[in-house]
Design brief:
With 135 residues, this protein is of the alpha+beta class. It has one domain: Alpha-Beta Complex (Aldehyde Oxidoreductase, domain 3), CATH 3.90.1170. Helices cover 33% and strands 43% of the residues. The protein is built from three helices and nine strands. Strands 3, 4, 6, 8 and 9 form a five-stranded antiparallel β-sheet that branches. A four-stranded mixed β-sheet has the order 1-5-7-2, sandwiched between helices. Strand 3 and strand 4 form a beta hairpin. It is elongated, with a radius of gyration of 15 Å.
Length: 135
């Protein structure tokens, strides 16, 4: 399950959809908006994307993860729009038979999302707003 959404990410829904009786492990990664970056205070972030292209890349990543690991469930959700400090901006949940696969697949998925999915980030600071590269 993949999604690009303007709505807050519902962690209960993620946990519910991650459940699989054949999975012995589930990892959940949450990326949230922090209050600083590179020595500057951050008051919020604006995420923007070309939704159809972003969803297509997320589907590619999902397919790669299923090919590399013995996956049971894959969930990747990224928020767009204005987010406040502390809000979850991205969530990845991976369910597999064994924990090592779950950890490896989750790390692979979030790294691929951050480097390949066309989502742009504008930080809001006391000195203004600026587009920044995701890391």
């Amino acid at each position: 399950m993949i999604s690009i959404t303007e709505k807050p990410i519902n962690l209960n829904d993620i946990l519910l959809h991650s459940k699989d009786d054949s999975a012995g492990a589930t990892t959940l990664f949450l990326g949230s908006v922090r209050d600083h970056n590179e020595g500057q205070n951050v008051s919020g972030i604006y995420y923007e994307t070309y939704k159809e292209m972003a969803q297509s890349v997320l589907l590619e990543i999902e397919s790669e993860v299923f090919k590399k690991w013995n996956m049971k469930k894959f969930i990747a959700i990224h928020r767009i729009g204005d987010l406040k400090i502390g809000e979850v901006s991205v969530a990845v949940s991976i369910s597999t038979e064994h924990r090592s696969d779950a950890f490896e697949a989750c790390r692979y998925a979030i790294d691929a999302i951050k480097t390949r999915v066309p989502i742009w980030k504008k930080e809001k600071t006391v000195t203004g707003q600026q587009w920044v590269q995701t890391k």
